[in-house]
Design a protein that fits this description.
mainly alpha; 9% strand; 57% helix
């Protein structure tokens, strides 16, 4: 009787192994889909006059505005030399960052939200 139970257990395990092998073969056969960018980030927005002095007056995507802000920061060497996470603002950036003389790099995208519409 014990041998019948063992044989039944082995028979039950074999089909499950075949199913997982089939699933793995299906996953391997599918080409991986490319990541799509979020449409909200790609929407063209009009910059405020303060931001337009840095990035230009034409409507542009939020991601492009951040890139242009960073290009301005690097071009004018506005990153703090001791603490690289901080940005020393010049006259144009002070208008964007609410008159602050120094802001964190993590606040750049946050501040742009107020100047893009």
């Amino acid at each position: 009787m014990a041998t019948k139970k063992k044989a039944a257990k082995k028979a039950a395990k074999k089909p499950a192994a075949k199913k997982t092998a089939k699933k793995a073969a299906k996953k391997a056969a599918k080409p991986k889909a490319k990541r799509k960018p979020n449409a909200a980030f790609m929407q063209a927005l009009t910059p405020s006059p303060a931001l337009a002095a840095i990035v230009g007056s034409k409507p542009l995507a939020r991601t492009e505005a951040v890139k242009r802000i960073w290009a301005h920061i690097k071009k004018n060497k506005l990153q703090d030399s001791k603490n690289r996470r901080m940005i020393n603002t010049d006259a144009a950036l002070k208008a964007v960052f609410g008159g602050k003389s120094q802001v964190s790099m993590f606040d750049v995208a946050k501040a742009l939200g107020k100047h893009l519409s």
